[in-house]
Amino acid sequence: xxxxxxxxxxxxxxxxxxxxxxxxxxAFVLGGLTGLALLFARIASTAWLRKLAKxxxxxxxxxxxxxxxxxxxxxxxxxxxxxxxxxxxxxxLTLFTSAYLGEIWRGCVExxxxxxxxxxxxxxxxxxxQMRYVILPQALKIxxxxxxxxSVQVVKGTAVTxxxxxxxxxxxxxxxxxATYQPFLVFGLVALGYFALCYPLSVFSRRLExxxxxxxxx
Amino acid sequence: xxxxxxxxxxLEYRDILLAGTLRTxxxxxxxxxxxxxxxxxxAASRAWQLAPWNRVFAVYVELIRNxxxxxxxxxxxxxxxxxxxxxxEWQASILAMVIxxxxxxxxxxxxxxxxxxxxxxxxxxxxAMTRRQxxxxxxxxxxxxxxxxxxxxxxxxxxxxxxxxxxIAAEELTFAANFIQSRNxxxxxxxxxxxxxxxxxxxxxxxxxxxxGDRLIGGRRT
Lengths: 218, 222
Description:
- The structure holds two protein chains of two kinds.
- Chain A is mainly α.
- Chain A is 81% helix and 0% strand.
- Chain A has one domain (6-209): Orthogonal Bundle (MetI-like fold), CATH 1.10.3720.10.
- Chain A has helices at 6-42, 47-61, 65-78, 85-110, 114-122, 127-157, 169-180, 183-215.
- The termini of chain A are far apart.
- Chain B has eight helices and no strands.
- The model of chain B has no long low-confidence stretch (mean pLDDT 93).
- Chain B is elongated and about 75 Å long.
- By secondary structure, chain B is mainly α.
- Chain B has helices spanning 14-47, 53-65, 69-79, 89-114, 118-126, 131-161, 173-184, 187-217.
- In chain B, helix 3 packs across helix 4 (89-114).
- Classes of the chains: A mainly alpha, B mainly alpha.
- The A-B interface holds A 59, 62-68, 70-71, 74-75, 78-80, 152, 156-160, 162-163, 170, 173-174, 177, 181-184, 187-188, 190-191, 194-195, 198-199, 202 and B 1, 3, 62-63, 65-72, 74-75, 78-83, 156, 160-161, 163-164, 166-167, 174, 177, 181, 187-188, 191-192, 194-195, 198-199, 202-203.
- Chain A: Pfam families: BPD_transp_1.
- Chain A: Keywords: Cell membrane, Membrane, Transmembrane, Transmembrane helix, Transport.
- Chain A: The chain crosses the membrane at residues 17-41, 62-80, 86-105, 142-164, 184-204.
- Chain A: It is found in: Cell inner membrane; Cell membrane.
């Protein structure tokens, strides 16, 4: 028995796209805030804070996202918390995103010439004021292109959350493929959905990169 | 309620963990070899605008880089058989990894090739080197040397990403973890240990590749 029309498939997949989009935005915003804290820790004058941030980044960049999700999902129940797949997915992706954004932004801050730090220090600005008024505004300009570029990785990363049972685009696709026996069509459409989300971001990031290089003399 | 951690219960499964690790390594090794080969072909076609291959690779790179690995894997494993191509979980995993790494390494290696000054090729031509010699020695080797650290990072990302191959029942390291935790009901300990194993694998692969790079294509010069 198979009375699922192609339109039903598309309609359900569009629902999945919304969940993928929602999870991506959540992870990107919360991951961005955490990443900012991580950036400050990474360039702090306190040594243990720097080391802690570095270890955090290395652990999240050196282990599979799927394992991180499993640990959060199963680990939370150990401490008596029953996280829903949505919360576990949002938490996992936020941590994952923050590690990468923190590291990307550190590179941007470090590419601001040292003289800017020295000049602002000579104006008796505090560390925080130096960051707020001198360094971050310049780093921000450099950071936009790679940050937009990384957002593509966040959107693609959300696919892995289907494995812990969060019903987004990939999970919707798996269920529809089982129900319709048309995996080629369904997963083709799923891929198209991700492409529609990611390709504009990729193009935008490349354009930003080019215009950033254009302003430099060479 | 306090939970008593029991990491020792994993010891009896060490053979399964070892087998999973070896399979993850084998997947990564095969995927890396063919993925980089594909990347070299793609990069050369793109950098020198060899029609029609430059167009083909341009589309391929965009399609792969803007869709998740998991979906590529499902598309290959579930989609191809419905077209009459029979494929098992290992073939699908390797194919997906090769296609995935091929797209990223095309872009990485292309950047290296495009950084080769035109004058170097002209100098090589004036020394009567053949086209093949010029490509291998004057263009490819320095290009790979320049982008080798980026390639190493990408290979590590692909290795970590291969954990989702467990979802099509390829019995690699994550599959082993899922199997073990379904037996000993120690999900947290199992995943924690296996995550640590992945971390060590990532470190080891990076070091090994950086050293292999020094050996095969000369020192890391900046």
